Amino acid sequence: MAEHDKPPVDEISGVETTGHEWDGITELDNPLPRWWLWCFYASIVWAIGYMIFMPALPAPPGFDGHTRGLRNHSERANVAVALADLEARRGPMFAQLQQTVDEGGVVAVLNDGDLLNFTLAAGRSAFGDNCATCHGVGGGGFTGYPNLRDDDWIWGGSFDDIRHTIVAGIRWEEHPETRFSEMPAFGRDQLLSREEINAVTDYVMTLSSLTVSENADLALGAEIYQRECASCHMDDGRGDQSIGAPNLTNNIWLYGGSREQIRHAIHRGPYGVMPAWEQRLPEPVITALAAYVYLLGGGETLQQREAGLAPQMAAETASAG
Amino acid sequence: MNLIHNRPGASGGDAADGVARLDVDAVNAVGQRELYQKRQQIYPKLVHGRFRLAKWVFLVLALGVYYLLPFVRWDRGPEGPSQAVLVDFPNARFYFFFIELWPQEVYYITGLLILAALALFLVTALFGRVWCGYACPQTVWTDLFIAVERLFEGDRNKRILLDRAPMSFNKAWRKTGKHVVWLAIAAATGGAWILYFHDAFDLLRDFFTGQAALTAYIFFALLTFTTYSLAGTLREQVCTYMCPWPRIQGALTDRESLAVTYRTDRGEPRGRHKKGESWDGRGDCIDCKACVAACPMGIDIRQGPQLECIGCALCIDACDDIMDKVGRPRGLIAYDTDDNIARRKAGEPARWRFVRPRVVLYAVLIAGVCAIMLAGLVSREELGLHADRDRNPNFVVLTDGSVRNAYTLNVQNKARVTRHLSLAVSADPQPGVQLLGARDELVLEIGPDRTRTFQVFLTLPREAALRHSIPVMFTITDPQTGETAFTQDVFVTGAAP
């Protein structure tokens, strides 16, 4: 009986095996070194110390979720410190940007490669945080939310115009200087009949060379346009940036370019709203945002260069100065 | 039990002048079983001979390189660091004499590691655990620490007696002296380590004036501690219990790999031998245990290949010395193969085959990796260009109907001078190019050893933007040196595919 309980012994090494066998392979049961055991005990002691010093145990309700530990360690606090540190390190660059723009305008930023890259990076990150929900990650826009990359500006595409749009918002009544205007809802408020709206819709489409059906009454449309619309959209349909009346001749449509969409805009009188950011973002961040949007490619004076094939930044810098 | 194991030099009839039978047992001998194994102190006896000499030479070379390399200078111009070997973490660069690597080139390091692993496989397949026996830092530093120990406390027998003796002034100063020198070596080891990560001379000055970075002190302390404990205290325990290599190497050797081998065919039957007795009908092993006493791992090589054996060959020196004294040929313990032992026993001649399938395989792989890395290194450009087209939005339609795409150009200048690169864009049809921040021409200014991004807008008139996508090639040229780099991308027009 006792014989039976003895573990088997490996012939070659003379060491006991664990007694298990896998495909003829057995495992030697060598003893663990004693110091290894001590290391194990030491790790237990360490764990206890760790639990005392660091937050480790769930606490009963009312005690903030968990124990604080003697070190009062908190990752959340660490992140706050790291963020403050980051802010402090970015501070000088933001200050430099603000100063450069104040003194030399946005083109001055273009002359300093490092500042330019900082502006683009800071602007991109602030844009992602605050604007991308409405304007798209890259500023490409959606129906009702303008594309900020093209050269068609509702409220003006100079750096100062863009800056003011961001500061004061659009139709944001809480801000005293907000950009404001209101197109009448010609259909909903029954200022024009259905036929009149159809006629003026066809006429508006011809302004940007869209094809209209052959039996469209363009003469009536032109007449209504001059009477009802030209005061805002101008005689030639090129719009008026001072009141945010879009250019109707360039085939870039904020509310869509199908006949139905254009007709609907005239019917309801669109009322696009964008919040003011003055109270929400620090001034240098707004400056960075405005510069970023300006430099996305559509900024006025920036885009003029694109008419020629080679850039003429030197001339541009001179003219801006 | 333990005390008897280590009783020095009790002799029982000398085999030859000066040949004593040592009373020593292998630490891994099957003895009384305990649940947890108590460590047996090992007192390796000093040997003289070819392999001991080779190990001393290697030790001096390896440690010399390790401690002194950070002080070697290399001229990289006024902008670059002047240290030959430097891992520059803050600037994300690695310097090795004429080689400079950027983070995106870590594959060289990967290649180097693959090479190191393959070389280890090859050497192991050929010669067994020579890495462990000669080159492993654990072996080298332990060897050095044992030498220091010997200096203060004497050779094996003296050390055993000293350890057993009660505390005395003699014992105290010897022990203290040993630990002080150990600590000094350990500190130099930790100190040299951090010099690889910062200019050595600057760091040394900052280090002693207390102005070095905290990480420098932490790593210094860490490596000092590990050197001191691993080489001073833990020694063979590291190889036996901590290191995975002894487990892996079993799969890397075969019956024809060289290994430190006790030639059973010649040694057995072993037994005591008195001067003048006949050698007929017996083996050459006189069971003097000189090999066991010399072993830094504390094992008996005569038990055959063992996990613990690091292949340091010191038992060969020990045994050769004895064989000389008893007047038998050397090489009772020698580099030999399992296969040869079997062949000799069967009466066949020994055979040495170094060209074996696994050896050839490793050699071919090594040659292949070397060739790839060399080709990469030779063709390494000092100018890099990468274009990233904005995909959100994919394209922009302008008021006049023309279409514009925006690109971010990522330019790397690996040279140590500021460059003014001219940018050329070619596509069919040719688009208008606008470079944000360019002053006059399409010139990209980029500082030495830097990466910079540039915004580029390409515009095509509506009439030209007929195809869905148009291939575009960006080329940058350094007019000074004539170097160029190019990258390809596409222009998306928004036209139906």
Automatic annotation (TrEMBL), chain A:
Keywords: Cell inner membrane, Cell membrane, Electron transport, Heme, Hydrogen ion transport, Ion transport, Iron, Membrane, Metal-binding, Oxidoreductase, Repeat, Respiratory chain, Transmembrane, Transmembrane helix, Transport. Heme c 2 binds at M183, C229, C232, H233. InterPro entries: CcoP_N, CcoP_N_sf, Cyt_c-like_dom, Cyt_c-like_dom_sf, Cyt_C_IC, Cyt_c_oxidase_cbb3_su3, Cytochrome_c_Oxidase_Subunit. GO terms for molecular function: electron transfer activity; heme binding; iron ion binding; oxidoreductase activity. Belongs to the CcoP / FixP family. The chain crosses the membrane at residues 35-53. Residues 118-208, 216-297 form the Cytochrome c domain. Component of the cbb3-type cytochrome c oxidase. Its main location: membrane. One of its GO terms (cellular component) is plasma membrane. Heme c 1 binds at C131, C134, H135, M274. Pfam families: Cytochrom_C (PF00034), Cytochrome_CBB3 (PF13442), FixP_N (PF14715). Its cofactor is heme c. Binds 2 heme C groups per subunit. GO terms for biological process: oxidative phosphorylation; proton transmembrane transport. The keyword Metal-binding applies. It comes from Alkalicaulis satelles. C-type cytochrome. Part of the cbb3-type cytochrome c oxidase complex. It is found in: Cell inner membrane. This is Cbb3-type cytochrome c oxidase subunit. Pathway: Energy metabolism; oxidative phosphorylation.
Automatic annotation (TrEMBL), chain B:
One of its GO terms (cellular component) is plasma membrane. It comes from the Bacteria. GO terms for molecular function: 4 iron, 4 sulfur cluster binding; metal ion binding. Keywords: 4Fe-4S, Electron transport, Iron, Iron-sulfur, Membrane, Metal-binding, Transmembrane, Transmembrane helix, Transport. The chain crosses the membrane at residues 53-72, 106-127, 180-198, 210-231, 359-378. Residues 275-304 form the 4Fe-4S ferredoxin-type domain. This is Cytochrome c oxidase accessory protein CcoG. It comes from Alkalicaulis satelles. The lineage of its organism: Bacteria, Pseudomonadati, Pseudomonadota, Alphaproteobacteria, Maricaulales.
